[in-house]
Amino acid sequence: MKQLPVLIAGGGIGGLALALTLDQIGVPFKVIETVNTVRPLGVGINLQPNAVRELYDLGITARELDSLGLPIREWALVGRNGIDIHAEPRGRDAGYRWPQYALYRGRFHMLLHDHLIRRAGTDALQLGSRVTGYRNNPDGTVTAEITDARGYTTHLRGALLIGADGIHSNVRAQMHPDQPPIHWGGAVMWRGTTRARPLRTGASFVGLGGSKQRMIIYPITAADSDGFATINWIAEVAFENAGDRPAGWFKPADLPDFAHHFDDWSFDWLDVPALLQAADVIYENPMIDRDPVATWRDGAVALIGDAAHAMYPTGSNGASQAIIDARTLGATMLARGVTPDALGAYDAALCGPVSELVLRNRGAGPFGLLDIVEDRCDGVFDTIDDIVSPSERTAFMARYKAAAGFAMDTLNNADPMIAADARIGA
User: Fold this and answer.
1) Could you tell me the pLDDT band of residue 400, with boundaries at 50, 70 and 90?
2) 196 domain residue, yes or no
């Protein structure tokens, strides 16, 4: 009897990482994606070493990732006065066996898509359709309701259904019909790119400011011969009256909408107004997430990525966690078969810890150090050690890395999540 496919609702980073994982371990699948044509969207993202390890194990090479971005060498937090609060090496410079990458989100998405088409063929991806509902069957399988762009509905039976359909997930909405609406705490982000000289090491991720206003700045290309790179930046402003602004999603924006908040952010090493004025492109979106839920699993159905744990981007690990979700699911299927039991093991392993991470990121994640400084001295200091000791800063960061799954010693010494020759039924 032909094995039923695993149905994947959504062809974003998490859905494609899962599809590649299932292809690797010999599990049939079908990705059901809303768009008619897959195109590169978005600006910069970071991939943490734990996710990069999994990409390498999927056969995606360092050379390919280098073509999309560059390894980050330093992670730094800087106070509103332009003085360092905390800086540390990242990736291989820190001693990890794998780098941390900053790269174009859209180009990375297309890399996953192109790998999938080469390996599994075009039939692996059903475009122009979305999963609008599901039914768990008595025999342990699942039937997905699929609606196309014309509004026509069909039904497809699968061994499992994985909701990788993002923060507005239809699969999650059916699984948790009483979930609260999307949570927005009042912060708005303006994202853009500018051709400029990279800061500090030339491959540094810099967080600057405090809880009410901050900038995040990092390169997503290596510097050219002229010394210029494409710099990804995020300008963030927290508004006291959150209800005064509509919570739209990733729409084009204009510089006058927000640049005045940063008019006096000039230092001897960085001119924020000039960086913003030279922007190539600008988008606006609210900083939103969803309240955690008690489970990501309902019978033969499970959630991954933003459908499971949409989180504030303060920890730079949303895409990384989606990849880890996919690989964890692959590992539990290898251990327990393509069964609801495998989804239960996945849920038990990740739902609780990652839900805590969602709340940690809502509380500013690793940028919480900026808030501590602001609380203790209104962000004004001459020597950071007088405000937050080196040991306190180091411990704060270590706790976040452990919660996010990339504590260095643990990761470096961990066995592969999926062995290179692992196959279902082998």
Assistant:
1) confident
2) no
